[in-house]
Amino acid sequence: MFLDHTVIEVVAGDGGSGCVSFRREKYVPRGGPDGGDGGRGGSVIVKATKQLSTLIDLHYNKTYKAQRGAHGKGASRRGKNGADVVILVPPGSIIRDVGGEEIIGELLEDGDECVVAKGGKGGLGNERFKSSRNQAPRKSTPGGEGEKRRLEITLKL
């Protein structure tokens, strides 16, 4: 079966939140803040490969979701970044936003790739907010949201 047009939904991963933590050890008085940053969310990437000649694989799997970033932890440990999702399409594919005329990407050669949804930024832990005036901050920031899009992919013949 040959298919040259399909609509899919892509969701990038959210960023992990920062951590509020304080160092507590036996021989370290007033240890201070040590909350780590959250990891960034995974992105969704569309890549052209000459092993494919039709969009039939995308017709049966309509939703692609990237992994979210892990939250920050104590002891200044940063959260793990989310894994990216790579969608394979044949060369000659044109990617558009549904309902818009704007072309997001045109993958003409083998190996061309385009980021269609960026992952969210990781939040900051309380270690980032320490200063000489605020030595024990109880503040952290949440991670950013990943992009969500509906894409129309057309194969140019």
Explain this structure to me?
- There is one protein chain.
- The chain is mainly β.
- It has 1 helix and 8 strands, in the order ββαββββββ.
- It has a 5-stranded mixed sheet, with no helix packed on it.
- The longest helix is centred in the middle third of the chain and has 5 residues, at 56-60.
- The chain is elongated.
- The mean pLDDT is 93.
Q: Give the helix/strand class.
A: mainly beta
- Rg: 21 Å
Number of helices, where a helix is a run of at least 4 consecutive DSSP H or I residues: 1
Strand order of the largest sheet: 3-1-8-5-6
**Would you count the extended β strands for me?**
8
The percent of residues in helical segments reads under 10%
**Range of strand content:** 25-35%
Shape: elongated
Low-pLDDT runs of 5+ residues are: none
Helix and strand run: EEHEEEEEE
Overall pLDDT score: 93
Task: Give keywords.
single chain; 157 residues; mainly beta; five-stranded mixed β-sheet; three-stranded mixed β-sheet; 1 helix; elongated
Topology:
Layout: E1 5-11, E2 44-48, H1 56-60, E3 63-65, E4 85-89, E5 93-97, E6 103-107, E7 113-117, E8 148-155
Parallel strand pairs: 1-3, 2-4
Antiparallel strand pairs: 1-8, 2-7, 5-6, 5-8
Brief summary of the model shown:
It contains one helix and eight strands; from the N terminus they run ββαββββββ.
